Protein 1
Amino acid sequence: MEIIIQPTQQAATEVAARLIATLLRDKPDAVLGLATGSTPLSLYQTLISMELDWSKVKTFNLDEYIGLPREHSQSYHSFMWENLFRHINIRKENIHIPDGNAKDIPRICEEYEKMIAASGGIDLQVLGIGTDGHIGFNEHTSSLASRTRIKTLTKRTRMDNARFFGSEEAVPFHVITMGIGTIMEARTNLLLAFGANKAAAIAEAVEGPIASSNPASVLQMHRSVKVCLDDPAASKLQRAEYFRWVYDNKPDWQTF
Ligand code: GLP
């Protein structure tokens, strides 16, 4: 894992945006895995302002609520169109988001996995992290080998996401999410976390044991993970000074 700690959310976001911009310039038909939530918002704004060419890019989103109409303001379909897709030149047929209104959920989950494989696999997966360490909607005790499937949200995640829905009762109980096994197959994972409320989950994920009690910790087993943090999200890392030192002393050819 490469831990990149920056003084502000904006500075950490810019590092992440540069990584994605470099990928899209080197590989115009790259396959990106995308995330929702408040964390990637500034990343999407920065990418939009870079005016990159998305005409050949394919995207796969991590997750979606089950039973929310697509047009609902809090569906991840709406989120992605509002915050990224309508601002860039991506082709509609290259966008993939799990269908939370499908009649046969297991079948579309299987198809989602097949579509990812048929596209050549995900080059770079953007991830946020829940306050309990979940990635996508893989709640604690998710199988570390899981594939795209239905999950039931924990009480804590429903409470965390109530701020978007106005009340906890309005947050759906069920979701479709890429599995942890699916995420682990992305060639690179780019995890972003900002703010002190993510500090405990980040410390466990980066420095704790690999355990399904903090699903993000499995990323320690991945060969290419970058973790972009602001100072508050890094505040519980015991080795923060070491991570800063490594980043500040990267050889020129390794900087981005
Ligand atoms: C949801 C999403 C995750 C996201 C998490 C954190 O559970 N499914 O992908 O990482 O929320 O959200 P936020 O970035 O708003 O803190």
Protein 2
Amino acid sequence: MPDLLIDVQDTIAVLTLNRPDKRNAMSDGLLSEIDGFFRTPPDGVRAAVITGAGGHYCAGLDLSEHVARDAEGTLHHSRGWHAVMDRVQGSGLPVVSALTGAVIGGGLELATSTHVRIAEPDCIFQLPEGRRGIFVGGGATVRVGRILGPDRMTEMMLTGRKYGTDEAVALGLAHYAVGAGEALPRALEVARQIAGNAPLSNYMMIQGIARIADMSRQDGLFVESMAAALAQTSPDAVEGLAAFLDKRAPRFR
Ligand code: 1HE
């Protein structure tokens, strides 16, 4: 069986991390399969869902591969993770994570590269790198650090504490808490709803908001106006506004 299962259900691609015996620990092979999908998503796919087989989302970096790397190899490996996580976040496809069990280390880095996170009650959100004598390398200082703030992330790493689902939602690590067995169906529902938005609006949300967060206030406001100028003069904007006034559902491209 491949390490990444890809199931395209009309406009939605469901990606299942499929190393259940290793709690879906991220091997180089699995990372490169995720990269491959987001480099060239299949035609017609408008949103993706990422989930894990066997009751866990992802137990982080495959530690059995990590021990074999030297400093230079680890540097390049970390930069490789950054490239893949950036691609997950910025391919243009909205990505929804269906979270169960371990959302640990690199698993949390993957989850926070996705745009919507839906968590079942058994989730464990943890950055245990400090307990393993290592450091995060897949983007957590930027993504998790910006969600939690540097103070909370430092404490999370120093103590290796585990956050449960309700705490994770309160902190912003996840967006929805659902019941056992409900994350994937809810993720599909949310992905379908997002896929029904105008593609250019989705693109601007994914590309624009995270970038603007890195800009000065004045640059951010200018880029917002540019994004608005593109989105609001698109054919889908004409359709979206007409549909609202006609009291009907819009039919976007
Ligand atoms: C693994 C990994 C892994 C499990 N790499 N093999 N991540 C961690 O430090 C998390 C490590 N894992 C755990 O804390 C636990 O495995 C879990 C809480 C996720 C699940 O516990 P449990 O009791 O269900 O399973 P288990 O018996 O601990 O693990 C089952 C098998 O999966 C076992 O292998 P086996 O050959 O003995 O059956 C484990 O060794 C294996 N396994 N997790 C390799 N991560 C870009 S930098 C990011 C840096 C990081 O991500 S550091 C955090 C790494």
